[in-house]
Amino acid sequence: MKEKLTVIKVGGKIVEEPDTLNQLLDDFSSLSGYKVLVHGGGRSATRIASQLGIESQMVNGRRITDAETLKVVTMVYGGLVNKNIVAGLQAKGVNAVGLTGADMNVIRSVKRPVKDIDYGYVGDVEKVDGKALADLIHRQIVPVMAPLTHDGNGNLLNTNADTIAGETAKALAEYFDVTLVYCFEKKGVLRDENDDDSVIPVLTPDLFKQYVEEGIVQGGMIPKLENSFSALDAGVSQVVITLASAIHKDSGTIIRK
Ligand SMILES: Nc1ncnc2c1ncn2[C@@H]1O[C@H](COP(=O)(O)OP(=O)(O)O)[C@@H](O)[C@H]1O
Ligand SMILES: CC(=O)N[C@@H](CCC(=O)OP(=O)(O)O)C(=O)O
């Protein structure tokens, strides 16, 4: 039987605020067993880009990443956010290592082809080196993954953090019994976004389709759920979407095939 591993993805709103981030790192530190942390930071990138006079543009939940924006996201995700998290975890006794996809060649991607929209320097994941990650994990090292990948020709590419989490969970499913947890600022997938008590306990592909048509599920939640179903199809054992401060409670929305 495979050993258990939890992949936690934490989004931009939690990461941006020191108090919520510290709470998350506390909860993450006390999780037992093998674990990986994947972080976003989209809000921080938007804020810092704006301070530098660079406007941000999102299309279908993805950032249009021109050359200047790529510099900003590299600094923010690969530097500021990733290293603060690693230092925070070290302070809590977790031996974390921060990685972009370029480090150890852990995530290769291809620049998204231009169809209707030119996303610029945005990468679609081609391959995650599950073995390299599993080796680190077996040495009791906790990978902390930034939403940056590379194309093998010297170019970094911006990649959605939910996708990094989904693809990493899939690659690790060959070596571990993987639970993928998307945590954010709400209690789960909600029937009414303004009512925190309207958590949908179980979400299946049919219900997902229905909720998208009804406008109940929209925006950033759509790619999160698409990544969730794709992870289950590829051998990830469990996917949960829940409140950041509830990662070791039995709560939130369970995603089922
Ligand atoms: N039915 C829903 N339940 C909860 N959140 C939803 C729902 N539909 C859309 N959302 C939106 O999805 C967002 C989460 O997606 P995203 O912004 O990509 O988060 P993250 O910060 O985790 O990357 C929530 O902040 C919320 O505004
Ligand atoms: C291509 C693309 O859109 N990349 C994302 C990566 C960060 C991210 O996904 O952050 P959250 O999880 O906080 O949303 C972006 O630049 O916003």
What does this structure look like?
The protein is an alpha/beta fold and about 260 residues long. The protein has a single domain, classed as 3-Layer(aba) Sandwich (Carbamate kinase), CATH 3.40.1160. Helices cover about 35% and strands about 25% of the residues. The strands form 4 sheets. Strands 5-8-2-1-11-13-14-12 form an 8-stranded mixed sheet, sandwiched between helices. The protein has a two-stranded antiparallel ribbon with strand order 3-4. Helix 6 runs parallel beside helix 8 (about 220-235). The two termini are about 20 Å apart. It binds adenosine-5'-diphosphate (ADP) and N-acetyl-L-glutamyl 5-phosphate. N-acetyl-L-glutamyl 5-phosphate binds near residues 63, 159 and 161. This is Acetylglutamate kinase. It is found in: Cytoplasm. It is an enzyme of class 2 (transferase). It comes from Phocaeicola plebeius.
Question: How would you summarize what this structure contains?
Answer:
With 257 residues, the protein is of the alpha/beta class. The chain has eight helices and 14 strands.
Order of helices and strands: EHHEHEEHEEEHEEEHEEHHEE
Number of strands: 14
What class would the helix/strand composition place it in? alpha/beta
Tally of individual domains: 1
| Proportion in β-strands | 15-25%
N-to-C span: 22 Å
CATH architecture: 3-Layer(aba) Sandwich
* Shape label: globular
CATH H-level superfamily:
Acetylglutamate kinase-like
Ligands present: adenosine-5'-diphosphate, N-acetyl-L-glutamyl 5-phosphate
- The name CATH uses for the topology is Carbamate kinase
Q: Which residues sit in consecutive blocks of at least 5 with pLDDT less than 50?
A: none
The major β-sheet equals: 8 strands, mixed
**Helix content, binned percent:** 25-40%
